[in-house]
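> Could you send the Lipoprotein prediction when you get a chance?

Sure thing. Input:
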Amino acid sequence: MKKYLLLGVALVTATLLLQSCFDDDDDYINYGYFVTPFDSISMPDTADFGGVIKITTYTKLKDKCQAFYTFDYKPQDSIRTVSAIAIQYDEEEVACGEEKTIAPVLDFNPIRSGNYKFKFWAGKDTTTNTDIFITKDIHIKMK
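Output:
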């Protein structure tokens, strides 16, 4: 009986080891993430405290092989630094289409009344290699 138990354990172990060696990743599309610059921003100059403020952002992505993923949102005191994270699919697996403008919406929920400064990443300066930002200010007033 002990021989059969050991044989069963050995067969299960061998099956698991062999299964993990199979190269069956063909069903998945390779992709990576990248930061895409904002072209423009649409947001109010003032808003009432106590509600969510919709900020429409505009950026360009290639149709089919790129997609908006999320915002990278970094609050520091009254300054909010925002960048757009997109997905780039492997162009050998997904053919790219034309470049198109998309308009992801950022929900801003202010934590207090007062002035906020938003810095939206708009790319790099080609001469100095420094970050370029679209800067927008909003005043949040008490109702």
